[in-house]
């Protein structure tokens, strides 16, 4: 069973707390998680950092995590040199 | 995120950079070869551009960008500086001021107003207006794709960067605009798992390679806002096309050092000075001398303006906090002594009294130090205000077609901030007057055999308990006859008989007095010297004018050093106690009967060691009955005023003490001989004498 979480709009430091809560929730339960970022229009470094932390958490909890990115997300990740 | 809450901070910060820009540009006109100064100006412009962008004010950012480009071309020596550029840049500074003022007032600024000036600046740069600036930047970046220097940049940001409202992605984007990023890698290992993550802390750091045609400094400039608390290393790397010297190659081949090390070593460029020294072209001592001079010049060229807040040296503040701490300790020690006293301590009262004495003198010392420290916080060098007059004179002389130099001296003289602020407007007025009316046209000057270039002196100095600010011009001087004619027609005086030269000149301080034949945009708008005089008098100061026809005019403003606390000499006359400010006291003595002389209808003189000093009996001057009728029975306090000495006769000296000067309040009319009142230790009210006023009233 694959858990899924879909994020949309602008992800940034102003919504960081909510984002952390959403992702923490998503990490409960299923052994697999897919994070859908295809509807994300913009994200800042703080949001990227949360995604990285989510990946680290998944690794710790032995959860297989995958991401799908919108062009905006891919571009941002590339510009700051991060592979999810 | 709502960025407008950062606007107030931005406005305050920008004010400082604008001042830097303005003063820097004026200085640059005088020393066009000062590369360091140009760099400073550039950095200020860059800072305004960057921070306005960060807080969501793209218009200011766009406008400053154009300025910055011109400055950059100057910096790279692609253009040489000329007066048109300084003019345009100064106008641009004014425009930014307006834009920032609009931000402060939360009003709209119409960006279209900037267009003509932006066009002009681009024209000076020899550029056509580009469609949009970022596009142009990208184009230039693209052409440089495979040339230029490769930099290895290690960027370890401060963990607090998010909290400072900064997104490192923006910095990285800015870097990308400088050229092309060949590789970038973020270190994500330091990011904890989600459960331990503090989303407001930045854990990431970066390593990247940037290829750009710009120099290291330009790359460094990207980090200008964050460099203080971030760890940034920018290492220029040699590109493979560049030759590595044979030795380096051999060392690498033999496996002694890595290629990277050789490249790094090669880029460690020596400083210009060191190279010249090693070539025997100059000595280390000479280099240091020039460097020192450079430092001094740099420091001199930047004086900040007075703002509504005050910047305080942290040491001064720490010192005060320490003193307050000491005071608290002394207080609790007092408490302990009091407690012992109440218990009727076995040690007897003697011991306790001795301790009280000691504690008291300690408290006295602390109190004095705190007072001095607090006063020092309010004192500012006048240079902060003087500096901006350079701009004023420059603009005025251009608009009047006169060649005028402003010579400033005594910038370090300190004045209370409140006084300094209020004296600015009168000074502007005086300087305008000097430029407009005082200085003749160039033709007139040449005809009179004077140098075509005229000079306005602005100087400040401290003398006794007052600070003097003088505005002097070498112009035509006041026209005595015109003043008299005007005064007669205005009905200010009935006849010129009995008026001294000085008195005639000082008529111009009367309300509604202007001798200017025509009204110009600089002065003569009905705001006369009377306003200047009123403003200065409101500060407990006075204005004096000296003039010599054909040689110029000097207007001297005398301002009290501080408004609040003075050292005073308490003296009694009859039943009253008066305070004479210590700063104007030279000595006090009881003269022998034979050294007191009376001059017919002129008053009395005291011979003090061969010097004849006019004697003013305070009881007569103040019209109160004194106890002593003869100077040899009372005390003569010798005071000085405007480099002359005057003896004030009092009944008795009570001692020296510090007093808090209080205004007499609006209920009392303006009294010339009293500068205020104070409350003595015993609760009595004493009046503080104004020596200048007394001397003037006594007509000696």
Q: So what's the overall shape of chain A?
A: globular
Order of helices and strands of chain A: EHEHEH
Number of domains of chain B: 6
Low-confidence stretches of chain B: 129-145, 294-307, 517-526
| Number of extended strands of chain B | 22
Give the percentage of residues in beta strands of chain A.
25-35%
Number of domains of chain A: 1
Q: How many angstroms does the end-to-end distance of chain B come to? A: 72 Å
Low-confidence stretches of chain A: none
Query: Portion of residues in helices of chain A?
Result: 40-55%
The CATH homologous superfamily of the largest domain in chain B is termed Histidine kinase-like ATPase, C-terminal domain
| CATH architecture level-2 label of chain A | 2-Layer Sandwich
Strand order, main sheet of chain B: write it out. Answer: 14-18-19-17-16-15
| Percentage beta strand of chain B | 15-25%
Q: Taking Cα atoms only, what radius of gyration of chain A do you get, to the nearest Å?
A: 12 Å
Number of helices of chain A: 3
What's the β-strand tally of chain A? 3
Mean pLDDT of chain B: 78
Describe this structure in words.
The complex is a heterodimer of chains A (84) and B (700). Chain A is an alpha/beta fold and 84 residues long. Chain A has a single domain (2-79), classed as Transcription Regulator spoIIAA, CATH 3.30.750. Chain A contains three helices and three strands. A three-stranded parallel beta sheet of chain A has the order 1-2-3. In chain A, strand 2, helix 2 (45-60) and strand 3 form a beta-alpha-beta unit. In chain A, helix 1 runs parallel beside helix 2 (45-60). The two termini of chain A are 22 Å apart. The relative contact order of chain A is 0.22. The model of chain A has no long low-confidence stretch (mean pLDDT 88). Helices cover 44% and strands 21% of the residues of chain B. In chain B, the strands form five sheets. A six-stranded mixed beta sheet of chain B has the order 14-18-19-17-16-15. Chain B has a five-stranded mixed beta sheet with strand order 6-8-9-11-10, with helices on one face. In chain B, strands 20-12-13-22-21 form a five-stranded mixed beta sheet. Chain B starts with 6 loop residues before the first helix and ends with a helix. Chain A binds chain B through residues 12-14, 16-17, 19-20, 23-24, 27, 44-46, 48-50, 52-54, 56-57, 59-60, 76, 79-82, and chain B through 1, 162, 167-169, 172-173, 176, 183-186, 188, 191-195, 197, 199-200, 202-204, 206, 208.
């Amino acid at each position: 069973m694959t858990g899924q979480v879909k994020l949309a709009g602008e992800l940034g430091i102003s919504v960081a707390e909510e984002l952390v809560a959403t992702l923490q929730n998503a990490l409960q339960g299923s052994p697999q998680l897919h994070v859908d970022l295809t509807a994300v229009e913009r994200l800042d470094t703080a949001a990227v950092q949360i995604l990285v932390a989510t990946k680290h958490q998944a690794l710790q909890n032995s959860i297989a995590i995958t991401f799908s990115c919108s062009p905006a997300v891919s571009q941002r990740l590339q510009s700051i040199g991060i592979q999810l | 995120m709502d960025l407008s809450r950062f606007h107030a901070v931005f406005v305050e910060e920008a004010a400082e950079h604008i001042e830097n820009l303005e003063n820097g540009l004026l200085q640059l006109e005088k020393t066009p070869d000062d590369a360091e100064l140009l760099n400073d100006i550039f950095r200020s412009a860059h800072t305004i551009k960057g921070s306005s962008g960060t807080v969501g004010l793209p218009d200011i950012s766009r406008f400053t960008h154009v300025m910055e480009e011109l400055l950059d071309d100057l910096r790279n020596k692609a253009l040489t500086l000329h007066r048109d550029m300084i003019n345009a840049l100064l106008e641009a500074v004014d425009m930014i001021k307006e834009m920032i003022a609009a931000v402060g007032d939360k009003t709209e600024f119409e960006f279209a107003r900037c267009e003509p000036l932006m066009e002009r600046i681009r024209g000076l740069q020899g550029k056509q207006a580009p469609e949009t600036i970022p596009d142009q930047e990208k184009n230039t970046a693209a052409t440089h794709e495979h040339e230029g220097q490769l930099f290895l940049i290690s960027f370890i940001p401060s963990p607090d960067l998010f909290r400072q409202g900064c997104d490192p992605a923006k910095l990285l984007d800015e870097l990308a605009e400088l050229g092309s990023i060949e590789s970038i890698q973020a270190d994500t290992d330091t990011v904890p798992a989600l459960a331990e993550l503090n989303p407001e802390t930045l854990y990431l750091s970066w390593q990247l390679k940037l290829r750009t045609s710009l120099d290291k400094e330009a790359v460094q400039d990207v980090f200008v806002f964050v460099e203080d608390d971030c760890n940034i290393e920018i290492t220029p790397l040699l590109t493979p096309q560049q030759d590595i010297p044979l030795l380096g190659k051999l060392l690498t081949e033999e496996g002694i050092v890595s290629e990277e090390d050789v490249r790094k070593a090669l880029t460690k460029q020596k400083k210009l000075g060191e190279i010249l020294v090693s070539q025997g072209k100059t000595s280390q001592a000479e280099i240091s001398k020039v460097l020192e001079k450079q430092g001094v010049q740099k420091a001199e060229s930047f004086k900040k303006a007075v703002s509504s807040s005050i910047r305080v040296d942290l040491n001064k503040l720490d010192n005060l906090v320490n003193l307050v701490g000491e005071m608290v300790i002394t207080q609790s020690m007092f408490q302990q002594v009091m407690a012992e006293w109440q218990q009727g301590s076995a040690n007897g009262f003697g011991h306790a009294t001795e301790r009280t004495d000691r504690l008291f003198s300690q408290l006295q010392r602390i109190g004095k130090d705190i007072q001095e420290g607090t006063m020092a916080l309010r004192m500012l060098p006048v240079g902060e205000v003087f500096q901006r007059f350079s701009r004023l004179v420059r603009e005025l002389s251009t608009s009047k077609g006169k060649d005028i130099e402003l010579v400033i001296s005594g910038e370090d003289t300190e004045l209370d901030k409140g006084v300094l602020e209020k004296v600015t407007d009168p000074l502007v007025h005086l300087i305008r007057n000097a430029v407009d009316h005082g200085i003749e046209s160039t033709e007139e000057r040449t005809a009179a055999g004077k140098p075509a270039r005229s000079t306005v002196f602005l100087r400040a100095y401290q003398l006794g308990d007052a600070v003097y600010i003088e505005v002097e011009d070498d112009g035509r001087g006041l026209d005595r006859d015109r003043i008299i004619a005007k005064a007669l027609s205005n009905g200010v005086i009935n006849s010129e008989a009995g008026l001294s030269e000085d008195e005639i000149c000082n008529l111009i301080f009367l309300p509604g007095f202007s001798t200017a034949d025509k009204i110009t945009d600089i002065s003569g708008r009905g705001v006369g010297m009377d306003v200047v005089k009123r403003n200065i008098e409101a500060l407990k100061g006075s204005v004096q004018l000296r003039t010599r026809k054909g040689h110029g005019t000097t207007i001297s403003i005398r301002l009290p050093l501080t408004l609040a606390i003075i050292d005073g000499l308490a003296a009694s006359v009859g039943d009253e106690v008066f305070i004479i400010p210590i700063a104007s006291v030279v000595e006090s003595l009881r003269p022998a009967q034979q050294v007191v002389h009376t001059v017919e209808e002129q008053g009395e003189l005291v011979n003090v060691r061969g010097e004849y000093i006019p004697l003013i009996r305070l009881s007569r001057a103040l019209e109160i009955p004194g106890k002593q009728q003869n100077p040899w029975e009372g005390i003569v306090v010798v005071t000085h005023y405007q480099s002359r000495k005057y003896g004030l006769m009092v009944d008795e000296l009570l001692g020296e003490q510090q007093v808090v000067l209080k205004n007499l309040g609006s209920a009392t009319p303006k009294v010339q001989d009293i500068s205020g009142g104070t409350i003595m230790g015993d609760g009595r009210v004493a009046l503080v004498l104004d020596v200048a006023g007394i001397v003037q009233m006594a007509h000696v």
